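Team,

Forwarding the record for the chain on the shared tracking sheet. I've put the sequence and predicted structure together so nobody has to dig through attachments.
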Amino acid sequence: MGETLLSDKKNYSNIVKNHYFPTSKNKMNALVILSDENLVSQLEAGLKVLPVNFLILSKWTSSDTIVYDTEVKNDILSWFDVVIGDNGVEWLQKYFQSGIVPVVPTNNYLKTILSEFEVLDGEGNAFLYEENNIWSLFFALSRFIENHKFPYDHKVLVKNVLAL
């Protein structure tokens, strides 16, 4: 199942990317659902320089690699590689079913089943951040981006997410 999902995700990703980000050459796609609008505005400058396309659930304006929307439809969930959230994100489990890796705070409501991904052990299913600030969140996102560069390690991570 994991192999098929990864293949379908790649094919569907190209279709949706052409709709949201027609000029972007980025290979990763992130969904940002942060309840703290101040945190979103602080993150924006840093997100623009990363090799990732971001869809941020907010009412702001869009740029080349960041698109703002007020909702995300369930039929495009498989497009995303990662969901970045805080304690305001509800229904995180629906993202797991699509193999979307969570970047969330350590004290989130699913802390009993989420754990930091450890490459050497091949265990864990998330990238966690300690404090609700841009530096801690950005560091967790950077760890995800680094993991995504290594196909075997990333495949293990996605399988761990699908097993939730």
